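S., here's the first fold you wanted:
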Amino acid sequence: MTRNTTPAATSADLVILDTAEVAERAGADGEFAAGAHRILAELVAAGAALGWLEPPSAAEVADLVEEVLTRSRAGDGALRAAYLGGRPAGFGYWLRHRRPTHRPHADLEKLAVSSAAQGRGIGRALTAALIADARVAGIEVLTLDARGDNADALRLYASLGFTEYGRLPDYVAVGERRYDKVFAMLDLRRS
């Protein structure tokens, strides 16, 4: 099994797995899904802007992982996982649009790095690997959305070439709080 490392990583212990390598770990004993669940549950419980108000269940995350792997095997997505010192540290994925008229485009759906592993270049390494995967898959435009208060993520995406193309003010409701929903894109035809 080839382990993919990336120059953006700041730790010699960092390993970035591609979709096939993640599938091996996911299929063997559910190890990847369990790690992804731990990361998401921890981040969402702390208020991270990942699309859940309450931490997702282990079954929900296992179903999500299986869907992403299935679509990736069909050429309609890519999943990357980061391991730091042999432990799950983060993951991210993109999925191609399903509508025939939008097939050359994909959404960077999720990027999550455990709080203990943040600040080590893992989010950058994962995103760069996913961008490379999108290029190989012939994706023309990679889009994403983020909650407006997620300044670190928005800075990361901008540093990798994403540009904001829209914003819905006060669109995301978390209890009484409201946040903008920010849309960004990376045009891979131009880079």
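And the second, which I think is the more interesting of the pair:
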Amino acid sequence: MREMIKIRASSLSELFDCPARFEAKYVKGLRLPASDAARLGTAVHAGAALFDQRIIEGNPLTPDEAAGAVVDAIHHPDEEVDWGESSPREAESIALPLHKMYCEQIAPLQSYIAVEATCDDLPIEDVALVLTGTLDRIYETSGCLGIGDIKTGKSAVAADGKVNTKGHAAQMGVYELMASRATGLPIDAPAKIFGLQVAKTDKGRRAGVGEISGARSLLVGGDEGPGLLTIASNMLHSGLFYGNPKSQICGEKYCPAFHICRWRR
């Protein structure tokens, strides 16, 4: 019987993007300071979480009142941050408008039942994996439940308003499995990506909602081939982590093994 290996839902996309980078970070425990983009995203998440949670509790805040959590996350981080050519002040000038866009354009159209919910570990015996993570949002619509996740980035929302959902299906599928276990209820509604386009100008910033249907089917597989959980399990148990030097984030800012990576030769 194979040893059960724990894996965070949020790390699955990195495993499939570059297994060697995944190994460096999550198997070997190599670390880099958080990037300016990652800290900006964390700050927006903090403000949005406070805003949404207070609505659930029946004690709502205005977007400006909840914005204090954004500022605190930027100027008082709980981790080392490599600001590069940016700065906390510049990150604040971008994060605060994004926070307000979320609160005014996305949140009012959603009905959340849980925000930043930590779930119990979910063992999947067939593939000898234990799934873990924190659910960004669980929403309700027409009597059905679904998963929602905030994504910030410079390609999060296209100029036509279409949200970039590519590459998020595996993570959202795991979240659906975990949410179903946590609530004891089926998760039937499409997974939602709440996209926030990062830009230095108001004109460049955008907010939108994209949907992913059938995310769990990618995890399980079928006639077309094995599911992503089987593929992930095979890599993790075999220790065969190949590199992907063509990854869009193959660089010293994102990979702690960049300078010693044999796959870049």
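Why I say that: The chain has a mean pLDDT of 94. Helices lie at 12-17, 19-27, 36-56, 63-75, 88-106, 169-183, 215-220, 228-238.

Talk tomorrow,
H.
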